[in-house]
UniProtKB/TrEMBL annotation:
The keyword Nucleotidyltransferase does not apply. Gene3D superfamilies: 3.30.470.10, D-amino Acid Aminotransferase, subunit A, domain 2 (3.20.10.10). This is Probable branched-chain-amino-acid aminotransferase. Its cofactor is pyridoxal 5'-phosphate. One of its GO terms (biological process) is amino acid biosynthetic process. Transmembrane segments: none annotated. Keywords: Amino-acid biosynthesis, Branched-chain amino acid biosynthesis, Pyridoxal phosphate. It comes from Pontivivens marinum. Its EC number is 2.6.1.42.
Length: 284
């Protein structure tokens, strides 16, 4: 059976989904997106994603296409239509379709597209193996706090990491790590402190990041929110990344340097367990 997707008010088979050639998401990457994890057929951290979506839209002076309640209903129908037990639902809002012009059009209705992806999230081999991370220059624009659809720069960075035989890249700006190509980055120091970059325009304000830092604090793990250097990463006891699409994912190698004994570290493993347990309990 074909996957059912949502396009501007209609649920249609993916092969019948159509968007205007004049849509500004296509012409200018003038749009934002969110991705919500699905566990046991339920939505994980959904209110947080809606709050961040509202902020992204506001920062770009873009109208919301539907209410939060309507957005939730669309998500729930996609879960049912696609018999989705575990995976992801992506939503994308663009400014809408208008003749090509750099200035924002007036009176144009935003476009809204959602689709699902079945994916193993809770029990994945990579969580047992751990990621290998390359370092690359951060070539993205200055407003990374807005979750825009302009993802070519992080795609290029991820491909550069793949070319080095790594799984992902951590990006460097002004001699400090910003974040991963599609995740927030963390190191654990030799004395057991978690270090991750503080919130600013330089990184995405991760929904999973907020939950994991709260869980770490409740577990009485010391947290330092500050920029850290590549050298600190190479000297770390362990490391990990967080994202809605991967939860807490251990890192076992950075820039060719093996961390610890080369296996996922205890803090990353514990935080992954805590996050998944809470996600299952709190999902709606």
């Amino acid at each position: 059976m074909s996957r059912i997707v949502y396009v501007n008010g209609e649920f249609v088979p993916e092969e019948d989904a159509k968007i205007s050639v004049f849509d500004r998401g296509f012409l200018f990457a003038d749009g934002v997106y969110e991705v919500t994890s699905i566990l046991d057929g339920k939505l994980v951290d959904f209110p947080g994603h809606m709050t961040r979506l509202a902020r992204s839209l506001s920062e770009l002076e873009m109208d919301a296409p539907v209410s939060d309640e309507e957005m939730e209903a669309i998500h729930r129908r996609l879960i049912v239509e696609n018999d989705l037990t575990e995976g992801l639902i992506y939503l994308q809002v663009t400014r809408g379709a208008a003749d090509r012009d750099f200035t924002y059009p007036v009176g144009v209705k935003p476009s809204l597209v959602l689709f699902s992806q079945a994916k193993q999230l809770a029990d994945t081999p990579m969580a047992e193996k751990g990621l290998k991370i390359a370092f690359v220059e951060d070539i993205r624009w200055g407003r990374r706090d807005i979750k825009t659809v302009q993802l070519l720069a992080p795609s290029m960075c991820k491909m550069a990491a793949k070319a080095q035989g790594c799984d992902d890249a951590w990006m460097i700006e002004d001699e400090h790590i910003t974040e991963g190509t599609s995740n927030n980055a963390y190191i654990v120091t030799k004395d057991g402190a978690i270090v991750t970059r503080n919130l600013s325009n330089s990184i995405l304000h991760g929904i999973t990041r907020a939950a994991v830092l709260r869980l770490a604090a409740e577990a009485q793990i010391r947290i330092e929110e500050r920029p850290f250097t590549p050298e600190e990463a190479r000297n770390a006891q362990e490391a990990f990344v967080t994202a809605a699409s991967s939860f807490v994912m251990p890192v076992v190698e950075v820039d060719g340097v093996t961390l610890g004994d080369g296996t996922p570290g205890p803090i990353a493993k514990r935080l992954r367990e805590l996050y998944i347990a809470e996600a299952r309990a709190a999902a709606i």
